[in-house]
Design a protein that fits this description.
The protein is mostly helical. The chain contains eight helices and no strands. 31% of the residues are buried.
Amino acid sequence: MVGEAEELYNRGRAAFNNGKTLDALTLFEKAFNMEPENPKYQSYLGLCIAYERGKIKEAISLCERALQAEPGKVECYLNLGRVYLRAGLKLRAVEVFRKGLSIDNKNPEIVAELQAMGLRNKAIISSLPRDHSLNKYLGKIIAKLGLR
């Protein structure tokens, strides 16, 4: 039974990544029904419920349960942030994405979500304006060193 649920989950991930969220929803529901306490099944099911059914409260609840069970899993932050975006809660999404980046600061999916939103990193020296020469040059140096 465990192997079958994992296979359904893997097929669901592939469907989701290919833009087939309805197919993914069906597969994640089946995996979730087999193992309802599995955080990754909860997280992806919540995401697909938000995308396909628009049931945001249910989706947030599932994603938050997954995050509580596995607070070190970056994909839980990614999915919860995507649900918040779907709900039009941009600030909450940014907050969740940034928490995810605190675990894995180079997660390409979270970085892509933030870039798609048009967000920039915080100024290096927050007491100075973003366009101040110190902030500009320090930002470039830190970026080149891969520290940001």
